[in-house]
Amino acid sequence: MKRNLGRWLYLFLLSPLLLFSATDYAYNLHLNKRSAYLNEPILLTFKVWQTDPKKIIFFEFEPVAHSSDWKMRLLQERRDMERGAITFEYLLFPQKVGDLLLSFNFIVKRTDEERLRHNNTGEPVKAKAIDTTDTHEVLPPLHLHINPLPKDVALVGDYKLNVSVDKHETEVNAPIYLNILLEGVGALPKDLNITPKIEGVKVFDDEPKINLRYETDGLHYRGSFSYALLSDQNFTIPAITIEGFSYKKGQTYQLQSQPISIHVQGVTIQKLVDSTSSESIYDQLEAMKQWLIYCLIFVSGYISALIVQRIRRVRFSKKEEDDSFQQAVKSADSAKALLKVLLKDHSNHYAIWIDQLEQAVYCGEKVDLKKMKREILKG
C-alpha cells in the first residue's frame, strides 16, 4: 500500500497539470510537455472559471518570461459566458537551453450588481468599462528543461521540400522558371539561403510567398520561392540541401533535391528566315519585321495583364487588411485590447487615442470605449 501511495505521489509531482480552487474561482494550468528541444513548440493551456455563480468576476492571464528565453504566441481565448469560464491557449518556443522558469500574470477582477448599475451606459458589460476590484493572484511558476539540438539546423520540426521547373529545354534569351516549395510543421525556419548561384546564368527572383498559421501542434509553414533563370548555354541547377531536426523522432534529417539539367538551343537567322524560300530578301525582312511587331504586342499585353493583376492584388490586400483592422477594433472588448490593436501597425495614425487608452490602462482613467471605437472607424 505504501509503495502504491509513493508511486501516485511521484506521478502527481511530475504532472504538467496544476489544479487550484479559491473561494470564488478555480483553474487548471497545463503544459503538453515539460521537457523539449530548443525552439520546439510547447502548448500552454490555462482554464479558469468562477465557482460562485452569484458573483461577477472577470479574468486576465498571460505568461511572463524573459524575452531572450521565449517566443510566445496567443492562439485563442475561448469564453463561456454562461459558466463564467475562459480558456487561454499559448504556443511557446523556447530560445534558450537549460532549466527555464515560466511565470504568469493573472488578474481577477471582481464587481457586483450595484457597481454594474452605476456604470451601465447601455453598451455590453466590459471588464475595463466598469468599476472592478482587481487582484493580482500568484500562480506557481513552472520549470521546464530545454535540451540543445544535436547540431545547428535551419529547420526544427517535420518539413518537406519540392523543387520543379516549367521545362527542361529552352532557347537563348528564353527563361526557365524554377519553383522551390518548402512546407512543414514546427518552428519558423531560419538562415534559409536557397537562391541558386549558377555560373553564366542570370537569376531573377520574385517576392517569396510565405504563409504562416499557428495551431496547437506548432507553426504551419508554407513558403514558395520563384526564380527566372536566363542563359545562352546549357546549365545545371544544383541540388538544394537543407538540414532539419525532427523533435518527434529525436533525430536530424536532410532535405535534398536532385540536380536539374537544362538544355539551351541557339537561335539563328536561319531559324527565323527560310533559306529555301523563293521570296526576295526584302519580303523576308518585312516578314521578320511583322513577326517582331507581333512579339512586341504580345509581350506588351502580357506585361499589362501582370500589372493589372498586381494592382488588383494590392487593392484586395489593402481592403482585406482594412476589413481585418475594422473587425479587430469592433471586437476589442477592453481598453487594453483596443490599445494592442492600435499599437500593432497603426501607432502613428492613432496616436491621440493611444495616449487616452494608455492613461486608462495604466493610470485608471475612464474612457468612453464605444465612442472612441466609432471615432477610430470613421478615421
Commentary on this structure:
By secondary structure, the protein is of the alpha+beta class. The protein contains 7 helices and 20 strands. The protein has helices spanning 2-14, 113-119, 269-272, 281-331, 335-345, 351-363, 369-378, and strands at residues 17-21, 25-31, 35-37, 42-50, 56-64, 70-80, 85-94, 98-111, 133-137, 142-147, 155-165, 169-171, 176-186, 202-205, 209-215, 218-230, 235-237, 241-246, 251-256, 260-265. Strands 11, 13, 14, 15, 16, 18 and 19 form a 7-stranded mixed β-sheet that branches. It has a 5-stranded antiparallel β-sheet with strand order 1-2-4-7-6, with no helix packed on it. A hairpin with a 2-residue loop joins strand 15 and strand 16. Helix 5 (335-345) runs antiparallel to helix 6. The relative contact order is 0.10. Mean pLDDT is 82; it is low at 1-17 and 272-278.
What is the fold's blueprint, element by element?
Elements: H1 2-14, E1 17-21, E2 25-31, E3 35-37, E4 42-50, E5 56-64, E6 70-80, E7 85-94, E8 98-111, H2 113-119, E9 133-137, E10 142-147, E11 155-165, E12 169-171, E13 176-186, E14 202-205, E15 209-215, E16 218-230, E17 235-237, E18 241-246, E19 251-256, E20 260-265, H3 269-272, H4 281-331, H5 335-345, H6 351-363, H7 369-378
Parallel strand pairs: 3-10, 11-18, 12-20
Antiparallel strand pairs: 1-2, 2-4, 4-7, 5-8, 6-7, 8-9, 8-10, 11-13, 13-16, 14-16, 15-16, 17-20, 18-19
Helix pairs in contact: 5-6
